[in-house]
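User: For my dataset I need records formatted as: sequence, then structure tokens, nothing else. Please produce one.
Assistant:
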Amino acid sequence: MMLRLLADEMLMRLGRWLRAAGHDVAMLPTGTPDARLVSLARAEQRKLITRDRKMLEYRDADTLVIFLQANELNACALELSRRLALDWLYAPFSRCMLCNRPLIAGDVRDLAHIPEESRRFNETAWRCEDCNKVYWHGSHVERMRRQLEVWEELSLHDSK
């Protein structure tokens, strides 16, 4: 199941990894007031993930806010997995890492700014219709996929 989340500025790195896993994760600019984050989470029916204890003071915080106690990325990922039964392999690399929109597939030969070496090894590239960012599978994707697989395995092992 795809999750609809909002990551505050303390958890933007985790938010990008959740996007890489295929989840719908909104992230507002650094410095966005807490009240705006809570309002957006409520309006868009998102869970607000945060390490900011003050977020727990807002009305309906018990249904809106997921407060993570962990500090380090791996620990936050595993804590969130426990709390949400999160699927780290939901739809890997299907969302724009910049703006969160779903990506559309296209022919890699039509995208001239992709390095020639990558064009030789890929037939498909993905583009965000909103911000026009282009993605293709390279060695960075394999490294990222391995990390997602590690978190998925750890979360499955932890739930038993």
